[in-house]
Amino acid sequence: MSQLHKSGEDYLEAVLFIERQKGRVRSVDIAKYLGVSKPSVNKALTNLQEMGYVNKPIYGEVSITKEGRERAETVARKHVALTKLLTEVLGVSPDVAEKDACKIEHDISEETTIKLIGYLKDKENGK
Questions:
Q1: pTM given for the model
Q2: Does residue 101 contact residue 70 with C-beta atoms inside 8 Å?
Q3: Which of 14, 3, 1 is nearest to 75 (CA)?
Q4: How far apart are the first and last CA of the chain?
Q5: Any residues with CB less than 8 A from the CB of 46 and at least 6 apart, and which?
């Protein structure tokens, strides 16, 4: 598979989020969620389909493949942990934390993510 760039990860994360919220995903929903044009969504979904991350029929709903779901869940897990760290530990406002987490989630290593999640769990448990 080709290398997935930050914007591709954002699209996968959006597909996963919309699917969880609405149960189905349409291109127009992705455009609205990400604040981009429908042609941009179409191009990104075509690229993601070529990489094996989504299925995008000419008409109809977008579905995420097993590989796409795994990648999207990894990005989403990083996003949630980073947002929690920024808001609850560092006191960053929720709006800024969301934006910053979205930037950081693409570059943070899996090792750091695991340590971060462990730290947050320990903090919740009073350790």
A1: 0.85
A2: no
A3: 14
A4: 41
A5: 56
